[in-house]
Write a structure and sequence with these properties.
- The complex is a heterodimer of chains A (424) and B (145).
- With 424 residues, chain A is an all-alpha fold.
- Helices cover 70% and strands 0% of the residues of chain A.
- In chain A, helix 7 packs across helix 9 and helix 10 packs parallel to helix 12.
- The radius of gyration of chain A is 25 Å and the shape is elongated.
- Chain B is α+β, with helices and mostly antiparallel strands and 145 residues long.
- Classes of the chains: A mainly alpha (424), B alpha+beta (145).
- The interface between A and B is large, with 68 and 35 residues.
């Protein structure tokens, strides 16, 4: 009985995986044939839903992607006819009515193409005319094959809100006249924004993989899967390899980053035997190879830092001078407040807490950053390290008041009260 | 000695905010700002303009996918105040605090930046008659330090 259930479960996983993989291919096939991204996207979603309900009952079709293309094309034809009828009713744009030749489903095998479509779709979903949340939502739906309900659930917003974001994004793409064609050489800027969107998806899943929202780790897996695809399509792009390595190296710590009580465990206190060595090895190999072959970029530097942490058997074995050197590089390549804060920590670990605190001093006068809990959290740790207990406690408390994250607040309050106990 | 070292992940500022609208209106009818003595004293075209502004901002945040949820609250006389006395919950009719300003409604928005949340709040005509509060909603997620 148990075995039987297990089989079913494995089969479900397999079908789901197939669906996710096929989604961008099927969408690309439809867009190439009918040229209407917005409607094609709806048709593909309906085909995926049909597959999700029919396959478990009737078994997998012989050629799942072809099955999906057939069903999606049929749906597309219906939708285009309906749109044409609506337009006729509106008595405008009669000339836009598609003729039967255009709306008749083509043989699915003619329509499916190689893997390059995924990249074209990604570039379209990350179009510069869209806001970051729209790029993220559209990427997860069109390339990830997630339903609107799944995406809404992952971002903790109602389905109606997410549906609105997706439909607005599709309208903007249409209004912007974006073409479904692969540029001869992909614009490096556009590719950077694709990587950034994948990074945001990973981030969203990663920061939430503690507490009551464990299911959201799906987002990290989805981000890794799509980034892996991009890396396979563009094996010579060092930043795509760097981003994949970064995700794998950070994801490797998943099992160790929360304690039994669900609280956050800082990197230095994590049980390193629980780090996933297979992910670490893959990440380290990827970044080593990328560094040897490609011009350096911010994701590669971040992956190198993550690799140095991953390779330290104990926290005290960490190669801080090397990490400090990498943060200096990152500061040049992609400056930002979080880079500066991490730079200060590396400086403190390499040259003592005073060096780190001095480095942070100018930031305390920055109007926006001075209200950011991370600045005060870092100062608190450095002050604690320097033995200034009272100042450290005040900084932890201020950081705890400023943060808007429940687990981070619990962690910061815990650090402050630990200092109280030590002074007793 | 342990030291935190943030993973090199930066979560964007995008988060949810609740926009709290208070009022001193004598009559309870939404949109509530239209019941304030200050609004009622305005010339017709000015009042129409403000009502249009109200529709516009709500439509904008709905269409942009920033609006998560919203609620217009009923007249405070419908408030129930619940308190546990000697282990038993006790319900009394009417608000807990008899204040001149009452909470009239709220919007929950999901924004890319705190500046955007404040911008949305500033577009509600209510701000012309009484201040409205924008407060971040805490997240159940976080990252190890």
């Amino acid at each position: 009985m148990d075995l039987h259930l297990l089989d079913l479960h494995v089969e479900d996983l397999h079908a789901e995986d197939l669906l996710r993989r096929a989604a961008p291919q099927v969408l690309a096939a439809l867009v190439r044939r009918y040229g209407n991204f917005e409607t094609a996207e709806d048709a593909v979603q309906e085909a995926l839903l049909a597959a999700a309900t029919q396959w478990p009952e009737q078994g997998l079709p012989d050629d799942p992607p072809a099955w999906l293309v057939t069903v999606a094309s049929r749906r597309m034809t219906d939708l285009l006819r309906k749109e044409a009828a609506d337009r006729r009713r509106d008595e405008r744009s009669v000339t836009l009515v598609p003729d039967d030749a255009l709306v008749a489903p083509a043989a699915e095998t003619e329509m499916l193409d190689g893997g390059d479509d995924t990249l074209t779709l990604l570039l379209l979903c990350c179009h510069p005319c869209l806001t970051a949340p729209s790029q993220v939502a559209l990427t997860l739906r069109a390339v990830g094959g997630l339903t609107t309900a799944e995406i809404a659930h992952a971002f903790l917003v109602p389905e109606a809100t997410m549906a609105q974001r997706i439909s607005r994004a599709k309208q903007r793409i249409r209004a912007g006249g974006a073409r479904f064609t692969m540029p001869a050489t992909p614009d490096p800027e556009r590719l950077r924004s694709v990587l950034h969107v994948l990074y945001l998806i990973f981030n969203e899943g990663y920061t939430s993989s503690s507490g009551p929202h464990l299911q959201r780790t799906d987002l990290t897996q989805e981000a890794i899967r799509i980034t892996r695809t991009v890396h396979h399509l563009l094996p010579h792009d060092g930043e795509a390899a760097g981003l994949l390595a970064l995700m794998l190296l950070i994801d490797a710590r998943r099992g160790a980053r929360t304690g039994p009580d669900g609280g956050l465990v800082p990197l230095a206190e994590q049980d390193r035997s629980r780090w996933d060595q297979r992910s670490i090895k893959e990440g380290v190999d990827l970044i080593t190879d990328a560094l040897a072959r490609s011009p350096i970029g911010p994701y590669q530097v971040q992956a190198s830092i993550a690799a140095l942490h991953a390779e330290a058997e104990r926290a005290q074995d960490t190669d801080w001078p090397q990490i400090l050197h990498l943060y200096r590089m990152l500061q040049d390549l992609a400056p930002g407040p979080m880079v500066t804060l991490n730079h200060a920590v590396a400086l403190a670990m390499a040259h003592g807490p005073r060096a780190g605190l001095m480095f942070l001093e100018p930031l305390e006068h920055d109007a926006r950053l001075s209200r950011h809990h991370r600045l005060h959290a870092v100062r608190a740790h450095l002050l604690e390290m320097a033995g200034q207990t009272d100042d450290a406690r005040a900084c932890y408390t201020l950081a705890a008041r400023l943060t808007t994250s429940v687990p981070e607040q619990a962690y910061l309050r815990g650090r402050a009260s630990r200092l109280d106990m030590n002074t007793l | 000695m342990t030291i935190r070292h943030s993973p090199h992940i930066e979560k964007e500022d995008e988060m949810k905010y609740v926009i709290l609208i208070y009022t001193n209106a004598k009559n309870w009818e939404h949109p509530i700002f239209a019941q304030t003595p200050e609004f009622l004293a305005l010339p017709d075209d000015e009042r129409e303009r403000l009502l249009r502004e109200d529709d516009e901002v709500i439509r904008e945040i709905h269409e942009s996918g920033e609006l998560v949820t919203a609620g217009a609250l009923a007249d405070p006389m419908n408030t129930m105040t619940v308190q546990r006395r000697d282990g038993a919950p006790m319900t009394t009719d009417g608000p807990y605090m008899e204040a001149k300003e009452q909470l009239a409604g709220f919007f929950v928005v999901d924004c890319e930046t705190p500046e955007r949340a404040a911008e949305i709040a500033g577009r509600f005509p209510d701000t012309r008659f009484s201040p409205i509060e924008v407060r971040p909603i805490m997240e159940m997620s976080g990252q190890e330090m």
